[in-house]
Model the fold of this input.
Amino acid sequence: MDDLESVVSAIMKSRHLVAFTGAGISAESGIPTYRGKDGLWNKYDPNLYANINYFNQEPSYYWNFFREVRYPLIKKVQPNQAHFALTEIEKEGNLKTVITQNIDGLHQEAGSSSVIELHGTTRVIYCLNCSQEYSLDEVFYILEKEIPPACPECKGRLRPAVVFFGEPLDPQILNSAFKEAETCDFLLAVGSSLVVHPAADIPRIAKQGGATLAIINKEGTPLDYMADYVINEKAGKVLPRMVQSLKENSSG
Ligand code: APR
Done:
């Protein structure tokens, strides 16, 4: 495992740092990750709760999960110090964009100004018929009366603005993320198992484009072999210390 200082000195040399994050960066906000022993997918079968075909067949499955799991969680979580640390690194001038697989909106809540949400956001629900958008609270209110929820405007079907399994990612969003990966000179991957594609292609694309790659993750990942630096620690512990060291070095 590499030490923090070597990562910080490499970041100090970078001119276009991009962060690539997964569920692990939100774990210390209380949002369960998907995989691993306490992973969400151990409790809820993603083929039932997060698959577009099943959502189309049996939308009530998803909406009950939304009402009982997603909504209460998103309503109470806050960004943690790992999210705020990325905002600090952005202020220091190196970090240009956060590419995230997360749908929790916590990077924006923490103040990151450029966030690419590869898998969409759970914070927006829209009507498949008239495209009217609704907030989490509005839909939670509708769910009190009817499941699956119907659009108050046109009685059309509602869906979350997330990418379900079995759906393609938005090509424009994916291309902008690939472009960032190709042009960055440092990719900081934080809190992802790096097993879900095409998102997990981002670190490889950055590496192929000549960028330095650092992976901060509690456990090993299949891409550790290609990384210049690997730190197997909690993001909420490592990133604030990284910011501290960056500030000390830049004011030094
Ligand atoms: N700090 C750093 N890493 C952590 C922490 C933490 N506090 N807690 C957990 N981790 C690590 C875990 O070891 C794991 O490797 O975060 C990783 C989370 O991996 P996943 O649960 O697979 O989440 P992610 O990589 O974001 O999944 C990608 O899969 O189900 C889909 O769409 C979903 O966006 C998600 C995608």
Remarks:
- The pocket of adenosine-5-diphosphoribose is lined by residues 22-24, 27-28, 33-36, 39, 101, 119, 191-193, 196, 217-219, 234-236 (CB under 6 Å).
- The chain has two domains: 1-30+79-119+168-252, 32-76+121-162.
- Residues 1-30+79-119+168-252 form a domain with the Rossmann fold fold (CATH 3.40.50.1220).
